[in-house]
Amino acid sequence: MIRFLFFLFLSLTCSSVLSAQKPAELKKAGEKYFAAQRWAEALDALGKYQQVKPGDPGILTKIGISHFHLHHPEQALQFLDYVAKQAPDSRDPDLFYYLARTLHGQQEYEKAIPAYKAYLRVAPERHPLRANAADNILRCVSGQAIPPNDNVALVENLGDRVNTAGDEFAPLPSINRPNRIYFAAAREGSLGGRRNDKGYEDEISGRFCSDMAFAELNPSGWETGGDLGSLLNTPRHEVALDFGLNGQVLYYFRGFTLYSGDIFADTASMHDEYAVTPTPFNSPFQPQMGDAAPFFFHDSLLLFASRREGGQGGLDIWYALRQNGVWQPAQNLGPAINSPYDETTPCLARDGYTLYFSANHTGSMGGFDIYRTVFDPQKQEWSAPVNMGAPLNSPGDDAYFRPAADGRAGYLSSDRLSDNFGERDLYIAYFKEALAEQQVEPTAVSFAYAGPRNAPDGGGTEAPRDLSLQPLFYTSDRDVLGAENLKTVQVAAAYARSIPDASVLVTVHTDETGPAKFDLYAGIKRAETVGKALFDQGIAPSRIVLRSVGPGYPAARNVLDAAPNTTGQQINRRIEIVLITPDGYVPDVRVERPRVSELMASDGTARLDQLNTGLSYKVEAVTTRQILTSDALSMFGDMMIETQPGAGSYRYTAGWVKQYKDAARLAQEIRGQGFTEATVIAYGNGLRISKAEAVGLVKKYPDLAAFVKG
Fold it and tell me: Which residues pair with 253 in a beta bridge?
């Protein structure tokens, strides 16, 4: 007994110099901090009391529990196991519960089960931990049966340059910087300090407010880069939630507690610089009503956790669609995923059909485990969720899983008992093989658009199987999205959502109104209007190609018998939308062009169709952010501007030929006119082909060999 108490003195983390406080004051202070869950301060005070008044089982138990919460499993087990052996008839339920939790956290499942049962024998029927202990016995059984995840090579704590004794959670990979993550940090030095649920400063019972911070991977490892500053962080809780518009919008939470507040949408540049005044985000997600853990998928699908009525019990995962620019009422994902327990922190993979989430039902290893499920669009159902196993999961709470963009790693937060610096820490998981669901081009297609139950056109029917698209005719910029044109855009978007690998090509034609450079630029601005409408319908910007060809490919003559042909001019003021798959035009999508009499017809449209078929080349002369005022490029003909929604830059090309040698010769001539960066661009069926893609297409198009070498 004496030898063990002497060991306890050496193992305590408090100061070796006795405090000047009286023992009674130390005990009172320690129990006050213990009640306030200030574990470090409680351990310090109770440890000093233990030094001068050793052997009190209640104090030793509280010291052990403090060690447990501070993630010192060995020390916690020493104290709790000692008290349990010295007083096997103890009626203290906390002693046996935390002894069981410590064993459970160390994956000592067989030893944890009898400890939980010992707790159940002494705990009153209404003890708040009884239900959890009974469930944890089942979780111990599950933990023994869950196989390890063979694809997980390593799960590593991001280290003490990122994690602290505080609470770090909700990792969010940056869109613009692959080696940066954002996260929430409630810890010493936070802007709000310690505050209670009413938002008032409270140094005893208050909790640190969370700030938004970021960390970066440097050659020496992960290091915190600091917080996002006082423009975004306030004395309230802030949590970075997700990015929208390809990284140009930051969605974040702000509230007096983590369970009640508001969502804001803040604009950012490619340098992650944010605006001073954020914009409130209006959607079915209501954090003030207890909704939590939102996830945004291509700005058209929102998943979140909620206890709202109509669920399966506890926190359920819900989703809402944005259609015609308006968020629709939220729907429950159903019993295939949700249970009477809690399901939270959903995340949808790039493929739009693979869902990750965390759940704490009795099939988990401990608290929350990360699960994976896949939606089958043919069967219209989710697969049985699969526990992603150790070491990704642990007997602690593992949540907020976010795969890296390339699928070779993933981030999560966990309060696992070992290898932890504080409450929750940030971890990175490395996979032996990249997650297949991340190895796809990002699109807005997802499970939510997979059938008649949630038809993408909002009309309760599936996308049409045989589609004719009318051109969008306009007389001025104001009617580019008139009622009929908008309806056509919506139909095109509905069809695009049903073909995940199809690109949406928007081509704007004009009549001749003046210098070609102005007609060309006016056309690309109209294309951007259509691109935004497609984006609002759930089509990812990466799938949309916007082109302006000006008056270069008329369907009708602008001048007839030496007089302006107003009918022909109106026909030429049109915007065509087509869908293109990697293999070419989608066969059942047709552009229904107006009939033009032989007298008035022009061959411009036929020539453009021929150039858009198969392999062709253009020369990209320059990329600008405004109109190109030089007239030098127009001498080469076939001018075109290309961009994508939100890009903010315009690619000017000229010439359009079928052989690489002709394109290379043209590029040299264009460089001679001052466009020194002019380069040859290859196109397949109207879409750009990168050199990496060209390598795989050389067999189909032998002329690409010269392009690859060029």
Answer: 239, 263
* Separation in Å, CA 688 to CA 503, 582, 639, 685: 11, 11, 16, 9
SS3 188: coil
Overall average pLDDT of the 6-21 stretch: 45
What distance lies between CA 272 and its chain's CA centroid?
A: 16
Distance CA 554, CA 549 (A): 10
CATH (domain of 663): 3.30.70.1070
pTM attached to this predicted model: 0.64
pLDDT tens track for 76-134: 999 999 999 998 889 999 999 999 999 999 999 999 999 999 999 999 999 999 999 99
Domain of 159, CATH number, reads: 2.120.10.30
Distances (CA, A) of 493 to 487, 583, 623: 10, 20, 28
Report yes or no on 444 lying in a domain. no
d(CA 577, CA 527): 10
Contacts of 156 (CB under 8 A, 6+ apart): 427, 428, 429, 430
Q: Residue 62 and residue 76: Cα distance in Å, rounded?
A: 10
Distance, first Cα to last Cα, the chain: 83
Secondary-structure percent of the chain, ordered helix, strand, coil, rounded to 5: 30, 30, 40
Q: 264-273: string of b/e by CB count within 10 Å (b at 16+)?
A: bbbebeeebe
Structural domain count, the chain: 4
